[in-house]
Structure formats: structure tokens, C-alpha cells
Amino acid sequence: MRIKSAVFVTSAPGPEQYPRDGRPEIAFIGRSNVGKSSLINSLLDSKGLARTSSTPGRTQLINFFLINDSFYFVDLPGYGWARAPEHIRRAWGPMVEHYLATRSNLVLSILITDSRRGPTTLDLQMKEWLIGTGKPFVVVSTKSDKLSANQLKSGMNQAHKLIGTTVIPYSSVTRRNREAVWAQIAKTLGS
Ligand SMILES: Nc1nc2c(ncn2[C@@H]2O[C@H](COP(=O)(O)OP(=O)(O)O)[C@@H](O)[C@H]2O)c(=O)[nH]1
Ligand SMILES: [Mg+2]
User: Does 66 map to a domain?
Assistant: First the structure.
């Protein structure tokens, strides 16, 4: 995919603020600090479009980025941020679940896990929940550069067993498998 343009459009607290132009949406979902913003930035060849922050859970709104004037990347708030204030933790579920379950423009979700940790209980719950929505999703495992080839191989086998679908090892540092992730996106967009 050639990125001609990538612009931040809006941070939406709820459905009233979602874009209304009907363009297809690719959603990114994962635990706080898993590398979601870095993945979005590396896919878009951008350094700071999706803010990367070492402060977990800073992004508590649904962020929409318009790509090539034709589809959106949707950066969903991360889950599992233990130190999040109670009211934020309570708001997370309904906001994200409502988006994933009801958004008709959503064509693909990208569930992000950490190569070093393997899928966590929350990751597996999220996967079950995505299966429940009946909509397509792919699993991308970030930070693969932090593992040796052997560690990565056994980690991926383990992740595959737990998750039951293909897991794409990714690195925002080396950009490993950037084309493979784009190929999944392009396939669902039919472009
Ligand atoms: N080595 C390495 N570090 C990464 C990678 N992706 C993210 N990080 C680091 O992990 C931390 C969290 O990344 P960020 O993208 O902000 O995570 P988010 O909270 O899920 O959006 C940052 O310090 C990033 O530099 C990766 O692929 N490789
Ligand atoms: Mg982020």
C-alpha cells in the first residue's frame, strides 16, 4: 500500500462523534503499552501521527485517522491498564465493545499481542469476544525484535496454539512483516 496521505481526524468519546462519511474502518486493539501506536505509526511511515507514549493508558478516546482519503485507521483505547482510575476502567468496556459490536463500517480488527509475553488472559478474552462479533480479525504480535530467532519461533507456536489462528510476528523497530499486515488490510478493503 502506498501511503499518499494520513491525517488525524477526531478523538471520539462516543458514537455521536464518529465519522459519518461511511468509509471502511480498520480497528487496532490491544493491552495498554503493547505497541499499538508504534504499529500504526510504522504502518503509516509516520513518526508521531498516533502518539506513542510510555505512559500506559493515556489514550482513552477512540482516535480516527483517514488514510489516502479512502479508509480509516481506528486507534481504540488499550485495555488492562491496572493503574487506571476506576471510572476509566468502567468506561472502557462499554465504549470499545459498543464500537466493535455495532460499527457497520468496521471491516477488520487487528488484535495486538506482545511477542515476549505471549497472549495474556485478557488478550484471549478479547479474541473470544471478537469471534463473538462475527467480524474478521487478525492477530499481530509486536516487539518481535526483542526475541532471538529461537525464542520467537517457540513463542509463535505457543501463541498459535492458544489463539487458534495465524499470528503475524511484527516489529515497529525493524518493520518486520509490515507488508504482510498491509496485505491483510488491502485484502479486506478489496484494493
Ligand atoms: N523494541 C520494540 N519496542 C517497541 C515496539 N513497539 C513499541 N515499542 C515500545 O513499547 C512502548 C509502548 O509503545 P506504544 O506504541 O506507545 O504502545 P501503546 O500504548 O500500545 O500505544 C514504547 O516505549 C515503544 O517504543 C517494537 O516493535 N519493538
Ligand atoms: Mg498508544
Answer: yes
Distance between Cα 59 and ligand 2 center (Å): 6
Which set of grid coordinates corresponds to residue 102? 455495532
Q: Is 60 in the pocket of ligand 1 (CB under 6 A)?
A: no
Range of the domain at 157: 6-189
Tell me whether residue 20 is in a domain.
Answer: yes
- Binding site membership of 174 for ligand 1 (Cβ less than 6 Å): no
For the CA of 36, the nearest ligand = 1
Which residues lie below 8 Å from residue 27, measured CB to CB, with a gap of 6+? 74, 76, 99, 100, 103, 106, 108, 109, 110
pTM of the full structure: 0.93
Cα 115 to averaged position of ligand 1 atoms, centre (Å):
12
For each successive 10 residues of the chain (191 residues), what is the average pLDDT?
A: 92 91 97 92 88 61 94 90 67 84 96 94 91 94 96 92 93 97 96 73
